[in-house]
Specification:
Chains A, B: This is DNA-binding LacI/PurR family transcriptional regulator. Two copies of one chain form a homodimer. Chain A is of the alpha/beta class. Chain A folds into three domains: 53 residues, Orthogonal Bundle (434 Repressor (Amino-terminal Domain)); 130 residues, 3-Layer(aba) Sandwich (Rossmann fold); 133 residues, Rossmann fold (3-Layer(aba) Sandwich). Chain A is built from 14 helices and twelve strands. Chain A has a six-stranded parallel β-sheet, sandwiched between helices. In chain A, strands 7-6-8-9-10-12 form a six-stranded mixed β-sheet, with helices on both faces. In chain A, strand 3, helix 7 and strand 4 form a beta-alpha-beta unit. Chain A is elongated, with a radius of gyration of 25 Å. At the A-B interface, helix 4, strand 1, helix 5, strand 2 and helix 6 of A face helix 4, strand 1, helix 5, strand 2 and helix 6 of B. The structure holds a DNA duplex.
Chain lengths: 341, 341
DNA sequence: TTGAAAGCGGTACCAC
DNA sequence: GTGGTACCGCTTTCAA
């Protein structure tokens, strides 16, 4: 079933079929209808490879994300991935998944060289990300999820982790908390300059300084057991700590249990705030007061930006910096009165 | 940068370059090295569209899943999706995402007609799924996640929800529980014959009957609030209920809060068991005793089956029915002594 | 308003 | 062991 077959059955040339379907050249109403009839009858769809080869466009967007070696994907990443396909479909594009190491451009290079996609969306970026230099160099359309050091030269969509952590700290400070800990993503990610972790940390330091508060920073692996251990360290390092802010959603269950194990009741004795998906925030009891990451919206905006860029590669780069409000749930409350010591 | 350019620079014909790279015809060591050198120098990769057009293979697997209209993807679905890309990469394949309505073959038809993929993986199947008839009819390679009514004629990977729910019921019965509720996926999914929900329900009924126990069944929407409401209904319908089994991971937080709100302490007064991702089970406190769904393994096995099918379309269909053990965590305990009434 | 034909960049058959 | 070339299915220029 190809365009030649359609042409034959409609008694026209192949080019006429092509034009009738694309509308790039006027076709008489009569022939157009005849062609459409044959097409419907046979359920004809142009072969994507042939079309891509001929006009240089694949109609496919690449989604580049790190392989889940050893660890799971976070709910945030995954929810985002899901939303992307829907958004792309709305623009008549498909999404191709591509796993690529956080620190490597090789698989990215392959993706571009093979011309499988028209543009890419980069998840999990580092502040200084070599893949971005590579893409700029190659003049290949892309959008990053996260705001990198090259933000002024690129298109990106990001959650403002600095502002969100600041909002959490302010909320806790307003409640009277003076000693607050930050539970961050894993050490490994911080070391490589992982954007959300770095900006979150930055926001924490600034906000704490601005308030004249004492803060400690704890990288934490993405699992419940690490969260549990992390809380124990926090309370050992400074038993007077009365609140924490977490960027690590996977550790959340462990954080709660660690607190319970230390005899701290949330939110009476200890407050917890964070940045998380609403879905995730509602799993724990009491529900987590958190800045709700709008994963689906991030996906939609990223696709919109990329598609715009494909339509006009010379156009200006676009940005969306989202700052969702902190949803007050049950995990924060007034700071407890200090124990007399 | 194309194969002609490589041929020119290496002073050989295009076909020789092609054969040197594919190894489908012997090439003298000298020319092979010369070609490889030019290829490396220029970072040449064959154009995927051209290759697909010429040999009829795209090197791409399609992942068909329902659009997340209104509801989020479940952690299970998403974790699974993530694992697929890695598994496919191991077989040198890419994964193309495609959202397709649960009850429609139209987008599937387009996917096949455009020849974008060599085979598809179908998530979220119904026991009687029209897409399967369509794929069989079209003689198109596919693997389903979930065991349908056509299981004997298809390749599939599934978690044995019947056995898992049975294991949960047996575990609870052994602990002395006599009145057990099943919290299922949403009504809507049950109505359309959603596989895991249907088989889970079937397992529940059989296991309860086999033990001579009293059970009630509760469809529940995929969110915390619905879980909360669901527990209230369970306890209103039969206050003597002392345990529940849940197939609904998204409702879990709400289930716990509903129990707490009714004055039931888990696991002292009430036991909860379920089927969930380990990650998810560890979010709640006490951690959920659950059959751990091995999402990543499901993804890997599905890709293996599909790739095998592509290599030998006439070969036998393969199956993997997984029955992960129930991990005892903290949410189940001996049935409380009945209150005198 | 339509048709013929030259590509797009590979693969693989047929010769030598 | 290597080269020439038809062909995969579509788009688009050129000509009528």
């Amino acid at each position: 079933m190809n365009i030649g077959e359609i042409a034959r059955r409609a008694n026209v040339s192949r080019s006429t079929v092509s034009y009738a379907l694309s509308g790039k050249r006027p076709v008489s109403e009569a022939t157009r209808r005849k062609i459409q009839q044959v097409v419907d009858e046979l359920g004809y769809q142009p072969n994507a490879s042939a079309r891509a080869l001929a006009n240089g466009r694949t109609g496919t967007l690449g989604l580049v994300f790190p392989p889940a070696v050893g660890h799971h994907y976070t709910a945030m990443q995954l929810d985002f991935m899901g939303s992307l396909a829907d958004a792309a479909a709305a623009h008549e594009h498909d999404v191709l998944l591509s796993t690529a190491g956080l620190d490597s451009v090789t698989s990215l290079r392959r993706l571009l060289a093979e011309r499988r996609v028209d543009g890419v969306i980069l998840m999990e970026v580092r502040l200084a990300d070599e893949r971005i230099e590579y893409l700029l160099e190659a003049d290949f359309p892309f959008v990053t999820i996260g705001r990198t050091d090259a933000a002024d030269r690129t298109s990106w969509v990001a959650v403002d982790h600095r502002a969100l952590v600041t909002a959490c700290v302010d909320h806790l400070a307003d409640l009277g908390h003076r000693r607050i800990a930050l539970v961050n993503r894993p050490e490994r990610l911080l070391r490589v300059g992982y954007e959300s972790a770095q900006r979150g940390l930055d926001g924490f330091r600034r906000a704490m300084a601005a308030r004249g508060l004492t803060g400690r920073h704890y990288p934490c692996d993405d699992d419940a057991a690490s969260g549990h251990a992390c809380v124990e360290r926090i309370l050992a390092d400074d038993p007077a700590t009365t609140a924490l802010v977490t960027l690590n959603e996977a550790a959340l269950g462990g954080l709660y249990r660690g607190l319970a194990g230390a005899g701290r009741t949330v939110p009476r004795d200890f407050s917890v705030a964070g940045v998380a998906l609403p879905h995730w925030a509602q799993m724990v009891t009491p529900q987590l007061t958190a800045a709700d990451v709008p994963a689906a919206e991030l996906g939609r905006l990223a696709v919109d930006l990329l598609v715009a860029r494909l339509a006009d590669p010379a156009g200006p780069s676009g940005h969306h910096l989202l700052t969702p409000p902190v949803s007050l749930r049950g995990s924060t409350g007034p700071a407890p009165l200090p124990l007399s010591s």
